[in-house]
Design a protein that fits this description.
Layout lengths: L2 H24 L20 E10 L2 E4 L2 E4 L4 E6 L2 E6 L5 E5 L3 E9 L6 H6 L8 E8 L9
Amino acid sequence: MSLHAVVRTSIAWSSLVLMSLSIFACGTTSIPNPTVTPQVMSTRLTALATGKLNLVDNCLRVDEYSLAFPSEFAVKIEKDTVKIVDALTGDKVEWHIGETVRLGGGEVPYQGLTEPVRQRLSTNCRGPYWLVGGLIHAIATPTVR
């Protein structure tokens, strides 16, 4: 075999080996870092409720729904003002009793509420329940002239 044929064969085999290695390298996955702490993600309902905010027997309601707030929501009622802070997103809203509001979440039966959420409900709050999942500022009521 001539020197030229040996060089060509060597180049061909080298190319084949390099292509094989690159194919296998692309198909591998990295090993997870064992020192990374897993993060707990909050899952929230995302339906939209729009209605008039009422306070009935110490129970916040939007139309027919009693509002059920998960523990990441801080709710403070002062006379006709409701201040709410969402600790997960940093959102803050101030609503007034009687105005139209929008909020994310979804209808959940009493049995579907977690025990911490149930404990936050006033004993006077009757279903159906709206599990709050997000806050949207109040909707401006148009002025009638």
